[in-house]
Amino acid sequence: MSKCKKIDKLMVNGLYDELQGKKKKNFLHHLKSCPGCREKYQELTGLMKIMDKRQQPRMSEDFWDNYYPALQEKINTLEQEQTQTQEGGPAPVIKIRRPLIRWALYPAAAMALLVVGIVIGQYLALDPGKNIPGSSPLISRQVNPAVAEHFYNLQPLLIDYANYTPSEYPLGPGENDMVTIEKRTVQKLLLENRLLKRIAARDKNIPLKRLMDELELILLEISHSSGGDSAGGRVVQQLIKDNDILFKITVFSKQQRKISTL
Amino acid sequence: MEPKNNNEWNLVKQACSGDKNAFREIVENNKKKIFYLAFDLTGSKQDAEDLSQEVFLKAFCSLQKFKGNASLSTWLYRITLNSFIDQKRKKSVLSDSPAWESQPTYDESPYSGNPETYTESLQIQQHVEQALQQLTPRERSVFVLRHYRGMAGKEVAELLHISQGTVKSLVFRAVKKLRKQLSFYRDNPGKEVNP
To answer: Which of these, A237, A230, A241, lies nearest to A177 by C-alpha position?
Structure first.
């Protein structure tokens, strides 16, 4: 990496005077000797001065005096709603979570996790040779062919994100290491996913619905991060990896093909 | 872990046990900090009021989750930032264009002093707000904390539960975008411009 690129990485810290010791010395020395970096640094200093011209509004005393009463009204409305949902019982102002109740939740959570693990394990550990309709919860009933098509459309995007390599350069991902997708396409996939999830819920196909839930979360993150957000890209990659999404989709697609050939 | 501030901790305990005056004191002590942070994030008085009230409403509902490991204002800051990012995320999913690309509505401060200086200052503020609107919610949050709140990278990272490297990367990208958006000031120093 050239000296100028290294200095470029330190510009923000230099602007906020957060460099120390040898780094600071090298940074200042380079600025003295390199007209290009010096010009860029001066330009950024100028930019920060412009940003400093932004002022906060001065709010009137009336505004501050009415602040809490306005909030109190919202709190009252919230409490009334809570009271109504509790069928007339008086709603406590604030629910206090007692330590005893929290401890009691842990075994329940462990049991729930165990059940979820068994259900997921049931279809992840499938032997494709033995599972003609009935053995896999995912394919225990005829699934809307639109689901298979949806997975088919999703797969390339998910593979792109799974193989996405965030750039080490602080400017974010470069052209070659960024997953590019139109926001509209993501939103279309998201809508499609939501509709199919509803169908899965209606058909009581819980494992499929769960997979659609995981996919929705991933699509939301992609929708938010599209536009070269490397941090978002890493989150998407992690979600795909942690939930074994590609594996689940592959298993599902294979099973779906088996059904259609029968 | 021992709570950092005993007074705050006592107020929280009282509020949790249903003391509305204690909760009011918490709001009164923090309302300006939270409102101005919300203003820096949204760029509008109305949105800042709505966001800050939402923050206190959320705090009211989950005050028992406050453990006193950090100061109450840090906890409220975290709720503000998360609420802001969530709001923008929801809006961007529902609309075609990201919400942070909508037209800025910078509020004018009351008129005072020289009319020329006032107009120029107002114009710069509008340009700055337009530029800030081009940042993603996370970029804006990090930039606001770093630049307008004077927080160090480490503090921002702890507040947002992200790594220092991510903070650095987000600030870098924010500065790059702002530099591009406000480039006309570099090209026409001291001139009145209409980008």
So the answer is: A230
Whether residue B60 is found in the same domain as residue B116: no
Residue of A nearest to B44 (CA): A57
Chain A residues close to B107, C-beta within 8 Å: 57
CB-CB under 8 Å, A93 with B56: no
Here the ipTM equals 0.80
Q: Do residues B181 and B135 share a domain?
A: yes
- Global confidence as pTM: 0.58
User: Does residue B10 fall inside a structural domain?
Assistant: yes
Contact partners, residue A26, CB within 8 Å, separation at least 6: none
Any idea where the domains of chain A sit in the sequence?
Answer: 3-51, 118-261
Q: Which of B3, B14, B1, B146 is nearest to B81 (CA)?
A: B146
Question: Are residues B9 and B54 located together in one domain of the fold?
Answer: yes
- Contact: B179, A47; criterion CB under 8 Å: yes
B172, B179, B187: best mutation site toward chain A, by most A Cβ within 10 Å? B172
Q: Indicate the SS3 state at residue A215.
A: helix
CATH number at residue B49: 1.10.1740.10
Residue B183, domain extent: 112-195
Beta strands, E only, chain A: none
Tell me if A15 sits within 8 A of A44, measured CB to CB: yes
Per-residue pLDDT of chain B (195 residues; tens, 9 = 90+): 555 667 888 888 888 888 888 999 999 999 999 999 999 999 889 999 999 999 999 998 888 888 877 888 899 999 999 999 888 877 665 554 444 444 444 455 555 566 666 677 778 888 899 899 989 898 999 999 999 998 988 899 988 888 888 888 889 889 989 988 888 776 655 444 444
Query: Which CATH number belongs to the domain containing residue B147 in this structure?
Result: 1.10.10.10
In a domain, B107, yes or no: no
CB spacing of B93 vs A220 below 8 angstroms:
yes
Q: Which residue among A47, A58, A223 sits closest to B182, beta carbon to beta carbon?
A: A47
- Establish if B48 belongs to a structural domain: yes
Residues B87 and B122 in one domain: no
Nearest to B83 by CA among B109, B68, B61: B61
pLDDT (0 to 100) of residue A103: 63
Which residue of A53, A72, A187 is in closest CB contact with B128? A53
